[in-house]
Each structure stands twice: as C-alpha cells, then as structure tokens.
Amino acid sequence: MGKPLIYEILEKPASSSIIGICSLIWWFIQKRGIGYGDVGLSYEAAVDGGQYWRVITSAFSHISVVHLVFNMSALWSLGVVEQLGQIGLGVEYYLHYTLVLVVLSGMLVLGFYHMMIQRFKVEYFRRVTAVGYSCVVFGWMTILAAKQPSSKLNIFGVLSLPISFAPFESLIFTSIMVPQASFIGHLSGIIVGYSIAWGLIHGMNNYWAITMLGWIALVFILSLKRTGSMELSFIEIEPVTDPSLPSVGVVASRNGRTLQMDVLPGRRVADIV
C-alpha cells in the first residue's frame, strides 16, 4: 500500500509546488482564452521582437490539458531527486538547477533556431512557437539517468521506463506519437541536463541562485515594459530605436497580445515542448 498523497507532497515540496504553479497557469490560460502566440517562445518574438520574457512564460505554460498532464506526471516521478540528498542532490540542488534548466534550455532552443535560420536559411524556424515544461523534464531525466541509473521513471502510473534510457526513449516516442512535439526543445533539455550531470555547469548555491533569479526578474520586467506587453508606469525606458527602420510592435487581439512585424509576415507554428 502506497503512502498517503500528503506525505508524498511533503517529500517533494519543490516539484509539487511547480506542478501547482503550472496547473494554475493552465487554468488561467483556459479562462482567458490565451493562445500559443501570447505566451510561447519563438525566434521572431523573442529575438527579433525583444520579448525575452517569453523564455520564462513559455516554460510554465501549457495550452492542452493532455500536454499538461503528461509533463506533470513525468515531473512528479522525477521529484525523487529531492529525496536523494545522500548522493549530492536534494531539494536545494533541485531548485538551483531547475532555474538553470529553465533559462539555459530556452536560450539553447533560440540558439538552434538561429543556426537553422541564419546558416541553413530555413525561415520556418523563425515563427515556430514553443510552449511547455518538457525542456526541464527532459533535463531532469538526463541528470537522474547519470546520477542514479538504477531509478525508474513512471508516467501516468502505468508506464515504467529505466531512467538510464528514458531521455532518448521519450525523445523518440514523443517525436513519433506527437507530431507537434518539439524535438529541438527536448534535445535542448537533454544537452543542458548532461552539462549539469557531468559537471560542465556547476557551482550553483543559494547566493548564485538568488543572484540569477534577480537578474531574470529584472530582464523579465524590463522586456515586458520595453515591448509594451504590460503597462508598468513606474518604469521609464528611453527609446533607442531609429524611426527610419522597420517597426516591431505589439497589437491587441481578441485572445491577448500578438506580435506584428512589418518585415516578417507569416503565420506561427505551434511547437509543444
């Protein structure tokens, strides 16, 4: 007989809190009729439009309930990381490197898009819009596979995968079963996960985590203000754009705000991560 749910929540406080946050955001998105283009991460919006806040909003946003349930089920299973303080993991480690995974995996996705657009001239990747917590989920799968290869990943309580193969099994499975699943997003999470597990990214502690969180909050708020995505009257930013250049702006739509660009017309493509 398993433990009561309340005890499992207390043993996984960080992952339980993230599941709660993602679920509340999903409810808010459904209630307000928000779409992929309003919160998702795309090269067109984030890089060309300067909407850097999308690196954060895209990670915690889910449009489909099936997408939300799949990601949160996997995340619940990966919460075992919080209970492995004896091998150098634990709650603090989980919080520190979740922050790293959210930011670096999002930046790596944009890096891949940049390479495909600039080097290979594939304009499709300019408008692909990604949402979802899968980058972080795949990152934690990878870290756990390296640190605790004997663990199992349980999804929906019925599917159990050896954690040592779970990142690549899940990458292949989702790419086949869910055509919209972001191969680049999932791969980015795996790359950042291995970088953490192998010590290429290391040294996170409370000081660096709080410092990093402060910079993230500052960039998030300033980019919201600068792109006009939210009215913040207490912050003033001097305009630096040349009026002779093509404009990038945010215009109101029925479902929220959408990006309008004079030089890059075209429809967005949803990419689930």
TrEMBL record:
Keywords: Membrane, Transmembrane, Transmembrane helix
Membrane disposition: Multi-pass membrane protein
Any one of the GO CC terms: membrane
InterPro entries recorded: Peptidase_S54_rhomboid_dom (IPR022764), Rhomboid-like_sf (IPR035952), Rhomboid_protease_S54 (IPR050925)
One Pfam family recorded for the sequence: Rhomboid
Compartment list: Membrane
Residues that span the membrane, as ranges: 59-81, 93-112, 124-143, 155-176, 183-201, 207-224
Chief location: membrane
Transmembrane helix listed as a keyword: yes
Gene3D superfamilies the record matches: Rhomboid-like
Domain Peptidase S54 rhomboid: 50-201
PANTHER family reported for this sequence: PEPTIDASE S54 RHOMBOID DOMAIN-CONTAINING PROTEIN-RELATED, RHOMBOID PROTEASE
Assigned protein family: Belongs to the peptidase S54 family.
Protein name per Swiss-Prot or TrEMBL: Peptidase S54 rhomboid domain-containing protein
Organism of this sequence: Urochloa decumbens
